[in-house]
Amino acid sequence: MKTPHAGRARQALRQATIDNHQRVDDLFSCFSLTDRDSYIAFLKAHARALAALEAMTEAQAPRLPLLTQDLVALGESLPPPLATPGCEGDAFRWGVRYTMEGSRLGGAVLARRVAPDLPHAYLSAAHEKGGWIAFQHSLDNAAEQGGEPWIEEAIRGAEAAFDLFAAAAGSEKISVHG
Q1: Residue 74, Cβ neighbours under 10 Å: how many?
Q2: Cα 137 to Cα 154: distance, rounded to the nearest angstrom
Q3: Could you give the CA distance from residue 162 to residue 103 in angstroms, rounded to a whole number?
Q4: 16: CB partners within 8 A, 6+ apart
Q5: Ordered domains of the chain (ranges, CATH)
Q6: In Å, how far from its chain's centre is CA 175?
Q7: What's the burial of 59, exposed, middle or buried (CB within 10 Å: 0-12/13-18/19+)?
Q8: What is the widest separation between alpha-carbon atoms in the chain?
Q9: pTM for this entry
């Protein structure tokens, strides 16, 4: 049953984080997915953010094991995670999950760009059919009771997750290129 507010939370999150999303995309576009060393740095940057975010949200379909698998196949280990952003509550965690689940969509696109001789289990971990839509419906249902304050807190969570990915990209870029 659709309510008059169906889609409101996801639309608010998408609109509020457009610039954050573009900034993270721009930072990660500096990594080559066909060059082994650059790809390792890309995976390590994701690991730094993902480890912290999955722990905070208690991810139901964690991708960190797949990322670890890819790094091990490349002869590498997981780097230490970045500090977890301050968690302000359930809505904040939903905002973090919004960013993480959205990154699965981007990962599916990026997986096709990885050199054929490089492992890509992490980037290939797309949603099962209908998974993204189901997540969005769950997000909207969770937001329905909380109203505008809930959505504002979810936006802060999504922004914090994007900020953590940006910081992770910057830290690997510096260590590889700096």
Answers
A1: 16
A2: 15
A3: 10
A4: 155, 158, 159
A5: 8-177 (1.20.910.10)
A6: 21
A7: middle
A8: 54
A9: 0.90
How do residues 68-94 score in pLDDT, each as one tens digit? Answer: 999 999 999 999 999 987 777 999 999
Cα three-residue angle 64-80-127, rounded to 5 degrees:
15
Structure tokens at 67: 């990322």
User: Does residue 27 contact residue 166 with C-beta atoms inside 8 Å?
Assistant: yes
Question: By the 8 A CB rule, do 142 and 10 touch?
Answer: no
pLDDT of residue 174: 55
DSSP letters spanning 82-135: PPPPPP--HHHHHHHHHHHHHHHHHHHHHHTTS-TTS--TTTT-PPPTTHHHHH
Positions in the chain short of pLDDT 70:
1-6, 174-178
Q: What is the DSSP letter of 32?
A: -
Asked if 94 and 139 touch (Cβ cutoff 8 Å), the reply is yes
- With DSSP H G I counted as helix, E B as strand and the rest as coil, what are the percentages for the chain, rounded to 5? 70, 0, 30
Q: Which two tokens stand for residue 170?
A: 């910057």
